[in-house]
Design brief:
Blueprint (H helix, E strand, L loop, with lengths): L5 H44 L1 E6 L3 E6 L3 H21 L5 H12 L4 H12 L2 H7 L3 E13 L6 E12 L3 E15 L10 E10 L2 E6 L7
Antiparallel strand pairs: 1-2, 3-4, 4-5, 5-6, 5-7
Helix pairs in contact: 2-3
Length: 218
């Protein structure tokens, strides 16, 4: 009887050990690679979240870092309200301009904006602007836009002046509005990431009406 080939058995055992070691290295490598990819993806997402977009004068977009987010948010809120009021109230005696301007304003608010537009339309407000060739301007000072950020939705109150320019006269009116702001996703049509809710004009009374020959401004 031949003696067992212990060398062959030892070689086989060594081969299995090397194979197990190789597989272990491969598994550890795969886990390390997967962890690295996961970390990179998570880091990329976090960095993307740290970027916000703010309006520059209501026209261009600037990139800001998230650490400035809390500082910029009140300014964004005030500008959102200012841009909305300009779009909703600053009108020309032109049907297409009125529709486009109201459409721009509707992106910044909820159905309360649409209800107010419908109510004014039914009362003939916009038709009177067109027929009377009235240019309606708005003056809004950001210092007169107050937003309460202590509780969401954020209540706001804004004060300004509405100026109606006719062929022979200029009428100046108070323009005081109230509403609430909520945070929403930023879009091209709503770059501030706010939406106006429960919008309501609370004072739109006349201040004065003067003859244009006596008023050189506007």
């Amino acid at each position: 009887m031949e003696a067992p080939n212990f060398k062959s058995l030892k070689d086989i055992d060594t081969s299995f050990s090397l194979m197990r070691l190789f597989m272990l290295v491969v598994i550890i490598g795969c886990l390390g690679f997967s962890s690295a990819i996961s970390f990179w993806a998570f880091d990329a997402v976090e960095k993307s979240r740290q970027k916000v977009y703010v309006m520059d004068g209501g026209k261009s977009i600037m990139l800001a870092m998230a650490q400035e987010h809390n500082m910029n948010r009140p300014a964004e809120a005030r500008d959102h309200i200012r841009v909305f009021m300009k779009a909703f109230f600053e009108l020309e005696p032109d049907e297409n301009q009125i529709k486009n301007s109201i459409k721009e304003a509707s992106y910044l608010g909820d159905e309360s904006v649409g209800r107010l537009y419908k109510d004014l339309s039914e009362k003939g407000y916009y038709q009177n602007l067109i027929q009377g060739n009235v240019h309606q301007k708005v003056e809004i000072d950001k210092n007169n836009i107050k937003v309460d950020f202590t509780q969401s939705p954020y209540k706001f109150r804004a004060k300004g002046r509405e100026i109606l320019i006719r062929e022979t006269t200029i009428t100046v009116r108070n323009l005081v509005v109230e509403g609430y702001l909520i945070d929403v996703a930023r879009t091209d049509n709503n770059p501030h990431g706010f939406q106006i809710e429960r919008f309501l004009p609370v004072d739109n009374t006349d201040i004065e009406t003067v003859n244009r020959n006596n008023r050189s401004t506007y």
